[in-house]
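Task card 7
Instruction: Convert sequence to structure tokens.
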Amino acid sequence: MSASLGRRAVAEAVGTAALVAVVVGSGIQATELSQDVGVQLLANSLATVFGLGVLITLLGPVSGAHFNPVVTLAAWFVGRGRGDGLTARDVAVYVPAQIAGAISGAVLANAMFAEPLVKWSAHDRSAGHLWLGEIVATAGLILLIFGLARTDRVSFTPVAVASYIGAAYWFTSSTSFANPAVTIGRAFSDTFAGIAPASVTPFIAAQLVGAAVGLGLMVAVFGRPAPAETDVVVPRGETELAVPSAH
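Output:
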């Protein structure tokens, strides 16, 4: 990427903060406007779809718009040793920036709706079927992102990734967090989109498993990349290979 590592880190932090603010803020707004859980989830998912698509389009050319540690780790793993992908140093900067951004986004959403700036969520999400949902959601996200890169359809990343996350809100039992940073950030808000701190670690473990499954599926479907092939510098990004985050 042409941008300095510092600028890319800022883009990742700002993008992840905005994403979490969208997820948490729209969840709060939805519960204030309707008591119907279905309507609340619809509002939350639609806001996330639109917000994610815009953020990937805007920040993809700067950092690849990952907004997601598993996407960053997968991009590093796929491009390791090639000289044109993410380095270990990039990963060491991206991931903390994403986590800090996610926490900031949750605090910002709480502030906008006059909620306590930090209040641990009481929404327990500890159950095997929810962890399976996270594995499925994350595997699908990784397969989609890297599959688009392998088939030279990176320009479709903003729409494709946002659409996938929107669909995964509804077809997965966990409502598709698929993102360790966002999972951590959502623990800071005791609202509709929150997750209890005790549920965070199992969710992240499931997401890491899902990322590994997604990469395995990518190889099974598309084969191993040729040594000289241009790889994914994912996003959630676009110019460089947008690999978006999950929410």
